[in-house]
Amino acid sequence: MLRVAVRRACCSATGQTRTVGNWARFVSSGSASSPSLSIWRRKKEIGKEGLIVAKELKRLQSDPVRLDRFIRSSVSRLLKSDLVAVLAEFQRQNQVFLTMKLYDIVRKEIWYRPDMFFYRDMLMTLARNRRVEEAKRVWRDLKAEEVLFDQHTFGDIVRAFLDSGLPSEAMDIYEEMRLSPEPPLSLPFRVMLKGLIPYPELRERVKNDFLEIFPDMIIYDPPEDLFEDHEQHT
Length: 234
What we know:
The protein is 57% helix and 4% strand. It is mainly alpha-helical. It has a two-stranded antiparallel sheet with strand order 1-2. The longest helix has 14 residues, at 200-213. It is elongated and about 60 Å long. The two termini are 20 Å apart. Keywords: Repeat. It comes from Clitoria ternatea (Butterfly pea). This is Pentatricopeptide repeat-containing protein.
């Protein structure tokens, strides 16, 4: 389970806190990564050198010695745009082993800066492939780098773990979402509630949180037989 310490220092000295039930609402001067500034949101086109490197990495991945030698001699010389594009391509192909290799390389680059979208893409890839241990590691890294997710990103990541049949890990991330300094929004809750249909007890818990924070909003529950049908197939 993704048990991590809660980073409370992210609330600035000028931040204010308002409590609604068990949910602390924070108003802070800090913010999550800006899409307009993130290299991870730009279109990623692999150049000729990147294509060659990607092909060779796939060929050598079963040979650790030659793979590490090639990484030192060739991958380290890639342009930033090619390195970012190759990582994105491996994520798209669900090449988890190579994705983690490039993840380590990127974080050592001189131009690297902690980024919400970088970590979002990593966690979505690992959730999709049900790679819990790697997800734990990435989560520890983002916490150490004090990366702050916005509420929509939290909702998408929780939903990704739910859709992959990893409810325990999804709920751990949900707990992090509850303690975030970002003000809660209704849409991420609705995204999660839909993903929680196969897990009625967990859904009821999140639903209660939602109604506590947004008492004037309505949740349309699916028919009871839909819950029962999911339970019969688990």
